[in-house]
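RECORD TYPE: inverse folding
INPUT: structure tokens
STRUCTURE:
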């Protein structure tokens, strides 16, 4: 990231920020930990590619844009955590580090290894990759992948580099539209495959499309995942609970000014208004579909 770019989009939007308050200790620290519900930006990426498939283009970023955004993460003094690390801090009451942020990738696109990993490694930034196991290249492939995906050797290399590998289902369905048996299979088979390939099952999960409901969240917990991420296009907070943490979408149209706002949890104005409206509208459609299936099953 050039000095010119950082000068145009500095931390605080050009306003000098105070240094973080010194760490508390003893009884005061204990009180602060129990009430720490600071907003945390969880960044949601998909493909990192110069020439993505048409199906993934809008949700992709170029390698150059990704490198610039990660340079901003470092320049702004952010402290990246993995999904498991954030959830563990909130679960145990440990204090959050200064300016926490999560860098997450959904699906398992090959560009995460080719383009994102070298940047993350150079800047020593931890991240989480949520893999759709049936889309990964190799013996477990189930087809219908939207673009070129990681293979299992690349997944192992990501894990060896310190990237947390999470689950994202096996075939990327809308989980809240599945019958309980298929839902359980999608969750358990994904966790089993990742565990078998990496030597340890994933602790974190991300809902395909961001869709979940109470039944899905209970199933994710029953499958053995300790925390899971939705979308929501707003900040994550401890009060959301470990199975409904919200993320913000980073896409090809996300410029430096908006990205700076994401890192600082500043007001997003109209940036995600359309996303939120579509989410609310489609939630109504999904609930109607669920109700219709229940009626049909009862008649059968």
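DESIGNED SEQUENCE:
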């Amino acid at each position: 990231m050039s000095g010119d770019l950082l000068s145009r989009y500095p931390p605080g939007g050009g306003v000098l920020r105070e240094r973080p308050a010194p760490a508390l200790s003893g009884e005061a620290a204990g009180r602060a930990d129990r009430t720490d519900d600071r907003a945390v930006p969880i960044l949601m990426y998909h493909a990192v590619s110069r020439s993505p498939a048409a199906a993934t283009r809008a949700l992709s970023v170029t390698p150059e844009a990704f490198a610039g955004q990660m340079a901003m993460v470092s320049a702004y003094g952010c402290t990246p955590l993995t999904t498991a690390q954030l959830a563990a801090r909130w679960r145990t009451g440990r204090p959050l580090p200064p300016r926490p942020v999560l860098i997450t990738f959904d699906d398992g696109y090959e560009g995460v290894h080719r383009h994102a990993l070298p940047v993350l490694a150079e800047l020593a930034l931890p991240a989480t990759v949520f893999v759709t196991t049936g889309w990964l290249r190799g013996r477990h492939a189930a087809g219908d992948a939207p673009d070129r995906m990681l293979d299992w050797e690349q997944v192992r290399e990501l894990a060896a580099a310190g990237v947390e590998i999470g689950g994202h289902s096996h075939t990327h369905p809308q989980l809240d539209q599945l019958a309980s048996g298929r839902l359980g299979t999608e969750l358990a088979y994904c966790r089993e495959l990742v565990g078998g390939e990496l030597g340890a099952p994933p602790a974190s999960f991300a809902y395909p499309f961001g869709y979940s409901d109470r039944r899905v969240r209970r199933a994710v917990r029953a499958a053995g995942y300790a925390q899971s991420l939705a979308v929501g296009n707003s900040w994550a907070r401890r009060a959301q609970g470990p199975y409904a943490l919200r993320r913000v979408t980073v896409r090809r149209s996300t410029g430096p000014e908006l990205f700076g706002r994401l890192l600082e949890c500043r007001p997003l104005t109209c940036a995600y208004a359309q996303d939120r409206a579509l989410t609310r509208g489609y939630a109504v459609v999904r609930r109607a579909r669920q109700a219709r299936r229940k009626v049909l099953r009862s008649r059968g």
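NOTES: The chain has ten helices and eight strands.
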